[in-house]
């Protein structure tokens, strides 16, 4: 992945992809003082870019560091990089971390770096499998208690248990894993939030110890527009048998139906497929951007 053509935005410069390196004594590498974002561009426009950049700033603040670029500067850098790389549809990955000036748990004076990479990432899950629904394992690790980790930060360190859980699931032939939270309630997948449907009503876990995803909030808005009833609440594992439909959602995963969670099975149905299509429409900018329409009206 590190030997590609193109450029990476690195501390304000466009650097050749293969030269965008860090030192091995980087604090972010040793002590996980790193936060990142995952964004998608559709038709040349990054969906909810400003929300992502604001979350990046907040993630860093929760790890006690401040990114030395404003939200506006980061938005502009993401857009400039997307144009420079010539992508219409792409995945965008900003990451901020503490540098290598000092080694040790405390590194208050270490420089804060920011890099942004853009690449082609068509479908997070096997496209053929996606419509039928993907299979989820049940993870051994649980989402931590908010008193043990800054769970609202999209912090690199919080992904350690996600990678272990996803690997364990993949080794058993599953696409991903469902994680419970520290109390034993249903929480989320390793990189996406989860929704269920029963008797025409949507149910989704209260995001009180994991990321309240931007896609999750978009799906809630789309469900409201459709007039669907939606309940945000704590969901017990025993309830998994009662639900008829299930889907996960995230920037990379988009809206992906789920057919199995361990011994529980679901059939992708009308509500899931409707929201999947609504999401696809929502993320794509309208053919003519308002500015262009205005220009056309004036001329
Ligand atoms: N939970 C986790 C653990 C994630 O990694 C992601 C992806 N960022 C999400 C939820 C969904 O967040 P979003 O919709 O903002 O991408």
Automatic annotation (TrEMBL):
Keyword Transferase: yes
Entry keyword set: Amino-acid biosynthesis, Aminotransferase, Branched-chain amino acid biosynthesis, Pyridoxal phosphate, Transferase
GO cellular component, one term: cytosol
GO molecular function ontology, one term from the record: branched-chain-amino-acid transaminase activity
Gene3D superfamilies: 3.30.470.10, D-amino Acid Aminotransferase, subunit A, domain 2 (3.20.10.10)
Enzyme Commission code(s) on record: 2.6.1.42
One GO biological process term: amino acid biosynthetic process
Essential cofactor(s): pyridoxal 5'-phosphate
Known pathway: Amino-acid biosynthesis; L-isoleucine biosynthesis; L-isoleucine from 2-oxobutanoate: step 4/4; Amino-acid biosynthesis; L-valine biosynthesis; L-valine from pyruvate: step 4/4; Amino-acid biosynthesis; L-leucine biosynthesis; L-leucine from 3-methyl-2-oxobutanoate: step 4/4
Reaction(s) this enzyme catalyzes, per UniProt: L-valine + 2-oxoglutarate = 3-methyl-2-oxobutanoate + L-glutamate; L-isoleucine + 2-oxoglutarate = (S)-3-methyl-2-oxopentanoate + L-glutamate; L-leucine + 2-oxoglutarate = 4-methyl-2-oxopentanoate + L-glutamate
InterPro entries linked: Aminotrans_IV, Aminotrans_IV_CS, Aminotransferase-like, B_amino_transI, BCAT-like_C, BCAT-like_N, Class-IV_PLP-Dep_Aminotrnsfr
PANTHER family: AMINO-ACID AMINOTRANSFERASE, AMINODEOXYCHORISMATE LYASE
NCBIfam families: ilvE_I, PRK06606.1, PRK07544.1
Protein family: Belongs to the class-IV pyridoxal-phosphate-dependent aminotransferase family.
Known function: Acts on leucine, isoleucine and valine.
Protein name: Branched-chain-amino-acid aminotransferase
Protein source organism: Microbaculum marinum
Gene name of the encoded protein: ilvE
């Amino acid at each position: 992945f590190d030997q590609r053509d193109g450029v990476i935005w690195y501390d304000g410069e466009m650097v050749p992809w293969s030269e965008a390196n860090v030192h091995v004594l980087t604090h972010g590498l040793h002590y996980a003082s790193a936060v990142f974002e995952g964004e998608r561009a559709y038709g040349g426009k990054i969906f909810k870019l400003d929300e992502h950049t604001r979350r990046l700033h907040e993630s860093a603040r929760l790890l006690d560091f401040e990114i030395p670029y404003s939200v506006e500067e980061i938005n502009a850098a993401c857009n400039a990089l997307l144009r420079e790389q010539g992508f219409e549809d792409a995945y965008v990955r900003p990451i901020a971390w503490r540098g290598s000036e000092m080694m040790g748990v405390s590194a208050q004076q270490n420089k804060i770096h920011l890099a942004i990479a853009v690449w082609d990432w068509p479908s997070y899950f096997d496209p053929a499998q996606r419509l039928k629904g993907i299979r989820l394992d049940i993870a051994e690790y649980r989402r931590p208690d908010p008193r043990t980790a800054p769970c609202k930060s999209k912090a690199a360190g919080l992904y350690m248990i996600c990678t272990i859980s996803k690997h364990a699931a993949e080794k058993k032939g599953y696409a991903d894993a469902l994680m419970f939270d520290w109390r034993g309630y249903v929480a989320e997948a390793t990189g996406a939030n989860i929704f269920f449907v029963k008797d025409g009503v949507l149910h989704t876990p209260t995001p009180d110890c994991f990321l309240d995803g931007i896609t999750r909030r978009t799906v809630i808005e789309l469900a409201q527009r459709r007039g669907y009833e939606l309940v945000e609440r704590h969901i017990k594992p025993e309830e998994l048998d009662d639900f008829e439909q299930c889907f996960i959602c995230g920037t990379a995963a988009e809206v992906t139906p789920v057919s199995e969670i361990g011994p529980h099975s679901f059939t992708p149905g009308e509500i899931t497929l409707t929201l999947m299509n609504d999401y696809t429409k929502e993320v794509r900018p309208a053919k003519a951007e308002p500015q262009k329409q205005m220009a056309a009206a004036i001329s």
